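Format notes (please read before filing issues)

Several people have asked whether sequences and structure tokens are stored in separate files. They are not. Every record keeps both together, in the order shown below: the sequence lines, then the token lines. Line labels are part of the format and must not be stripped during preprocessing.
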Amino acid sequence: MPKLSLVVPVYKVQGYLPECLDSVLGQDCTDFEIIAVDDCSPDGSGAILDEYAKRDTRIHVIHLTENVGLGRARNAGLEKATGDYVLFLDSDDTLSDGALSAICNRLEATDNPEILIFDYVRTYWDGRVRPNLRADLLKEEGPDVFSLAERPQLLDLLQIVWNKAYRRDFVTRTGLTFPPGYYEDAPWTFCSLISAERIALLDRVCVRYRQRREGGNILKTVSRKHFDVFDQYQRVFDYLDAHEELAEWRGPLFRKMVDHYLTVLERPGRLPQDARAEFFHRASRDYRARLPKGFTRPAGGRGRKYGMLERDAYTTMVSALTAVKVRQRVKSRARTAINRSKRGAMGAFYQSQLRLPLDDNLVLFSAYWSRSVSCNPAAIDAELARLAPHMRRVWAVRAENAGQVPKGVRVVRVGSREYWAAVARAKYLVNNVNFADSVVKREGQVHLQTHHGTPLKTMGLDQQKFPASTDMDFAKLLERCDRWDYSISANHFSTVIWERVYPCSYTTLETGYPRNDVLVNAGSEEVRAARAALGLADGTKAFLYMPTHREYQPGFTPPLDLGRFARELGPDVTLLVRGHYFYGNSPHVNELRRTGRIVDVSGHPRVEELYLAADALITDYSSAMFDYAVLDRPIISYVPDWDVYSAVRGTYFDLLQEPPGAVATRQTELLQLLASGAYDSPETTERRDTFRRRFCEFDDGHAAERVVRRVFLGETSLPPIVPFDERHHAPTPAQALELVERA
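Then the structure lines:
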């Protein structure tokens, strides 16, 4: 039997669950089991648990068939626990390093008490760590083991179960279980503490309590479910009634009850406005029914609130709370005035447009900071024209890029009056990056974030761990992300990352990337047209080389000897290079360009056409690999600086261990792969298949249609994802040529 059983209830935490599990599995103490309870989670949490359980036999997964809530999920895990002690860990929190060893050592040193209480810290998205405000209670001098009567002040610790280890036979003997509903920790915490004869303390932070920016916290949810607090304290006092030997705790627990009721009343964002009076009167009844003889109210303002409850003086309480709100409103108006003055810099014209009604049939598109008409927004634009031709489609484009816009596209130049009018009045705003900070999200507007890649490198809040890679203002970043209504995902891998690193209140659409539809649906004519536009003759082998940006390099210098590349691979091979323009004017390189052996495609407006034209892709850390994989053509990872890149920028998986095909870390190795044809072998094909199944999960050629139907047409029944093994993709250049010759 293990020493410790960790019960982990799981519900809608796919972005945080791996970190939680890793924090347990990475402990130096190994004498534990994890009982993970999937509370019928609607996201990918259950699959994550199953994957971890396959890799580690200490993890036991329970899949509930219906959502039962936190308390009953914990009960389900408790029933399966076999350890000497039971700990509860919420699935978005983590253990600190060495926590379990410290807990086990303290349990042994104190001769296995019934309850061990340990410390925690609150962690925030911006990196802040705030200590437990009552950590002092864990530092007091005295006996190592004691009862609550000797240290009653421990009742003032936060009413939580996950900062304690409970001896399992003690839990069984007392019959402790978790009730349903909100505030389920209160009955368990109070009843266990007053029942335990032997309690010990561990003055060490063992749990990192995540303060999620959005969601996951009932205390930030406006609901009548907060009335559950009355049932929870009914259970506490029923327990007292059943245990006359615990009568001394009526006074202290009465005080905890009243404080809890007042907290629910006073904190904004809990009770619906039309339920506040009902809650107060119910709290007042409990107050009078449970008032202990000889009870003394607290001093000061808190005591006056106790008196209001005792008298059921709701009107008086409202007046007091209104006075507080007035003071808060004054401060809020001051802040609003400041914000208005800042927005004044946007111009009076924009302000006037913001006061006009939204145009329900106007859609404003932008891509890559308004530099082009491309990527996912362009694919959505085309599908919108097909399915909803009544909608007017406008693109925001910078003045210096306006000349590159395809014919027939309506454009507003960024910064112009037309631009600000469109930003202010368009019902729909579509972008693959964020709009500028100066753009105001209006009530009723719909912001669609399409993204522009699958992340290998760290993104969003995860970049805080790699400060050398960015000087981003993360608070401003999240303010921009707060405007999103929808976030598009090409695979479940991305979904989990986006929801964690951009923790805002948007809806994820697992539709696939619209820009990749053409890679599925294109035929031989489109492939041949793409090659002809680049001047690629029939029979020419074309390698598309797409290295990504490196934060530690000032510009683009391809780590390839282009002359050697051309010399060793012969005249029938062309290298398409997409990156920044080459530095320097080597006569030999210029000669290679003139002969067509090297084609600089950095300025090509549609990268999807380059994908169709290329026989294979050579890249490093670019998200191009994830898109090109849709074509099921060879991919070569040329990563001469993997150690540096992964250390400076951070990555979500090891590309050397999980590549989409062949891997080369030296130029000689790369040239040998290309010259010998070893880049396209059964082994590399198998790697690519595994890669495609993971990262091309939803790219079946219908992504744009799903997005348009869901976002613009309001449909909820969308075309289902075509099973992976039933999909097709565009033909290779060789297949396209063969089809033409047959015709």
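For reference, the curators noted about this record: DSSP finds 27 helices and 23 strands in the chain. The two ends are 71 Å apart (CA to CA).
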